[in-house]
Every structure is written in C-alpha cells, then in structure tokens.
Amino acid sequence: PLSAEDSAKLSGRTPQVLYMACDHDNLSEYQCLVRKQIELFEARPEDVESNAKGRNKPIVLGQVGIRCRHCHALPPKSRQRGATYYPAKLNGLYQAAQSMASGHLCYHCGHIPNNIRQELLVLRERKSSAGGGKKYWGDGVHILGVYEDENGLRFKREKN
Q1: Where are the beta strands (DSSP E) in the chain?
Q2: Which uninterrupted H or E stretch holds 134?
Q3: What is the pTM of this model?
Q4: Helix 29-36 crosses helix 114-125 at what angle (to 10 degrees)?
C-alpha cells in the first residue's frame, strides 16, 4: 500500500487512451491508429523502481508517461524495448509516440494483435499530408488533463 505522502503525489486518474474522436479530422489514418494503441498513465511505485533505460532524469511517482496498451500489464522489466516513454514536455509527446510506433508497435511488441501491426505497417508507408504535428499532440493531451511541471508531465486532479 502507498503511504499518505506517496498517495498525495498521484492524481488517481485511470490510464487513458490517447485517441480522441476529433483525431480523424486532424490526423492521418496511421496517426489515428497509433493513438489507439497508446495510453497515458501515471507512474506508480513499480514504474519508478524499474526506471527507463537511458534516462537522464529519474522517473518520479505520479509522472505521466505513454505506454503500449497491449503489453502494459507485463512487469516493467518484461516489456519489450520502447513500450513506455516519459516525455518531459507536452511538445515532446509527438516524438515519443512516433518512436514507440516505429519500433515497439511495428516490430517489437509480442502482444499487439497481428492484424493491427500489419495495418500500421501498411498505413505507415502511405504518404499523407494530414498530420496535426507536435502542437496538435501536445494540445490534445492538455485537453485530456495533462500539464507540465518541474518533473515532467502530470495529470490534473479530477474534481470530486
């Protein structure tokens, strides 16, 4: 169980899929499908303890990251490379998601259904001018209740 001090660092928000209904008006089919495979989540004690390889700054309790929806239930050390990212800024979310998509989702995840992986690979090859870019991705998570602080991204507390 979490201490009262640790509990205060968490918003209590449940993980949330990155995809929003308005994405189809602003993003390519590929980007929409990618967003359906990724969820926002709050770092819990097990995430903090596992830390992410190659990080300069340690992950802190309650920090918001993105993770693969298909393998997130595995213990952090058992997930394939690129399953979780902790962007420090809202405008870093786009690049983190693209890295997850091009490596983890398209090639490394052993839990993504094969039909979704194949669709990602096909759609990725299609060149599309539809793409909201970094600003759209950052604004979108802000709408979902994510903000920046000195430790990276955080969820706003839900009103009771």
Answers
A1: 16-17, 38-42, 64-68, 84-85, 146-149, 152-155
A2: helix 133-143
A3: 0.89
A4: 150
